């Protein structure tokens, strides 16, 4: 599906007769069960278990159904291939559904599925919203009017410099961000473009939104867009024949901030992005970009865009050290106390949580949510024991899983619709050889087993057969993006 098709996601409302003859229901969980059954029937068990088995209903707010998946990869895939289909089904099963918000969830606290009609209701209280960050595309599919096509993505006022803590891992990024934000509109630009990259939840979006806030407060015209908002904005403007206005708007600003650039897809959109980038930089306008990897690793991006992005300052934000994690936790606890005066977390508990939850800022938010929920339930003070119980699942979920060769064989076999016995057998038909070689390749890359041992576990094969399979798949993955995506999915299935 190309992005322009995705703009037609406004759902057709069910007719009165659909409702009166009982073919639709106002009960979100029941409607969602029906949609899942329909998806299984339409796409078959294999596709269903690959893409939809872990797609869950979170909550329905007004006309938007909030769904979630555990990984960004699944979200991108579903978004690109199945979203309009799911929206059509949901609209038929759940009257009044007009939009889907597809979130990436972290383990643990989730809103309870149901319909919430409260005027202006949000998906969750702010802390929860931070753990289940709305997918960028949500803002994109909300594009409905010509005026909206030209608007930026909403800024989160909590993501300011004041609320951003600085440590060793982000000092350089923070200093560069401050300089870029504070530079006067007519001053020479310190770094252009400024490219920030980091793994999930380490504060990229926070920092670049802080740049946009501060720039606006010193009188500059800043536009903050997720890469997907850029894509949809441009495509929507094209459809509405306002593309010139869209480009002019982009070029009339002092600062363009683009988030999650790794999601920029499509040749013509990349070309447009490249023109915009060149026009802005050459015209002395500041560009700030954030992504989950450095420009050189953005494989799907056009070489010219990558080299232009590498031409300014590229800074990585590293893992949050323990001191930084303590500061973030304390600030979140303090913020929660504004609404829950009895929520008191002693320093030794904060230190314990900071030590245990070492992954990222989003998990720290998740940990505070859990502490809050436990303290509300127990009604007593927050002891180390309570804290340990509260964050147990968060910590356990983060421990790297040891992958077993049997699991690899089972999951690969299921994915390719063959049996595990086929994989271990001597059969040499193509339908069995490919999954067998992929399974061997994954066994080599995901387990510490030696080639001879892998050979033994694959029906007593020689180590040279394993080596041949590993080399072959390695080579193919480098050339064939379809296969690379399949292997990536299998890896993720195995590491979850
Ligand atoms: N240095 C920091 N100071 C304060 N809060 C932080 C810091 N780093 C991360 N956070 C918080 O951690 C959470 C996740 O951060 P953010 O959304 O900016 O991550 P991200 O790098 O953009 O992740 P993603 O790649 O998933 O979009 C937010 O609540 C953010 O405020």
From TrEMBL:
Region Domain IV, binds dsDNA: start-end pairs: 376-496
Domain annotation AAA+ ATPase: ranges: 190-319
Regions that span the bilayer: none
Short name of any one Pfam family annotated for the protein: Bac_DnaA
Binding of ATP, residues: 201, 203-205
Residue stretches making up the Chromosomal replication initiator DnaA C-terminal domain: 404-473
InterPro entries in the record: AAA+_ATPase, Chromosome_initiator_DnaA, Chromosome_initiator_DnaA-like, Chromosome_initiator_DnaA_CS, DnaA_C, DnaA_dom, DnaA_N_dom, DnaA_N_sf
Key words of the record: ATP-binding, Cytoplasm, DNA replication, DNA-binding, Lipid-binding, Nucleotide-binding
Localization annotation: Cytoplasm
Region (Domain I, interacts with DnaA modulators): 1-130
Superkingdom: Bacteria
Subunit annotation: Oligomerizes as a right-handed, spiral filament on DNA at oriC.
Similarity comment: family membership: Belongs to the DnaA family.
Record comment regarding domains: Domain I is involved in oligomerization and binding regulators, domain II is flexibile and of varying length in different bacteria, domain III forms the AAA+ region, while domain IV binds dsDNA.
Primary role: Plays an essential role in the initiation and regulation of chromosomal replication. ATP-DnaA binds to the origin of replication (oriC) to initiate formation of the DNA replication initiation complex once per cell cycle. Binds the DnaA box (a 9 base pair repeat at the origin) and separates the double-stranded (ds)DNA. Forms a right-handed helical filament on oriC DNA; dsDNA binds to the exterior of the filament while single-stranded (ss)DNA is stabiized in the filament's interior.
Name of the molecule in the record: Chromosomal replication initiator protein DnaA
Source organism of this protein record: Labrys monachus
């Amino acid at each position: 599906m190309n992005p322009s098709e995705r703009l037609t996601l406004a759902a057709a409302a069910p007719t009165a007769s659909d409702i009166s003859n009982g073919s639709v229901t106002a009960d979100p969980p029941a409607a969602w069960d029906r949609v899942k059954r329909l998806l299984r029937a339409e796409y078959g068990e294999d596709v269903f278990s690959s893409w939809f088995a872990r797609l869950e209903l979170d909550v329905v707010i007004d006309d938007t159904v909030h769904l979630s998946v555990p990984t960004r990869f699944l979200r991108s895939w579903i978004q690109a291939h199945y979203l309009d289909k799911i929206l059509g089904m949901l609209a038929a099963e759940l009257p009044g559904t007009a939009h889907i918000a597809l979130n990436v969830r972290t383990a643990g606290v989730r809103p309870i599925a149901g319909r919430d009609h409260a005027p202006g209701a949000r998906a969750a209280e702010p802390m929860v919203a931070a753990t289940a960050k709305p997918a960028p595309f949500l803002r994109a599919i909300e594009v409905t009017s010509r005026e909206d096509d030209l608007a930026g993505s909403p800024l989160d006022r909590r993501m300011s410099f004041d609320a951003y803590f600085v440590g060793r891992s982000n000092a350089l990024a923070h200093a560069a961000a401050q300089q870029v934000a504070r530079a006067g509109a007519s001053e020479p630009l310190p770094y252009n473009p400024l490219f920030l990259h980091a793994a999930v939840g380490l504060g990229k979006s926070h920092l670049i939104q802080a740049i946009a806030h501060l720039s606006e407060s010193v009188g500059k015209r800043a536009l903050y867009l997720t890469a997907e908002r850029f894509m949809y904005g441009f495509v929507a403007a094209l459809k509405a024949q306002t593309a010139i206005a869209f480009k002019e708007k982009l070029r009339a600003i002092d600062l363009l901030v683009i988030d999650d650039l790794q999601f920029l897809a499509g040749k013509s959109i990349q070309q447009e992005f490249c023109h915009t980038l060149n026009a802005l930089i050459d015209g002395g306008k500041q560009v700030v970009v954030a992504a989950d990897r450095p420009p050189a690793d953005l494989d799907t991006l056009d070489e010219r865009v990558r080299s232009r992005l590498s031409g300014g300052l590229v800074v990585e934000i590293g893992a949050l050290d323990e001191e930084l994690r303590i500061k973030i936790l304390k600030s979140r606890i303090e913020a929660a106390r504004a609404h829950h005066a009895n929520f008191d977390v002693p320093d030794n508990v904060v230190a314990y949580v900071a030590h245990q939850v070492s992954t990222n800022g989003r998990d720290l938010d998740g940990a505070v949510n859990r502490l809050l929920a436990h303290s509300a339930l127990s009604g007593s003070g927050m002891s180390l024991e309570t804290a340990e119980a509260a964050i147990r699942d968060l910590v356990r979920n983060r421990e790297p899983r040891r992958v077993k060769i049997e699991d690899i064989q089972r999951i690969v076999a299921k994915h390719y619709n063959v049996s595990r016995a086929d994989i271990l057998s001597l059969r040499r038909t193509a339908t069995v050889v490919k999954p067998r070689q992929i399974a061997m390749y994954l066994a080599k890359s995901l387990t510490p087993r030696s080639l001879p041992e892998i050979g033994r576990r694959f029906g007593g094969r020689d180590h040279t057969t394993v080596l041949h399979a590993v080399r072959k798949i390695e080579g193919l993955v480098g050339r064939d993006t379809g296969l690379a995506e399949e292997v990536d999915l299998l890896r993720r299935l195995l590491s979850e």
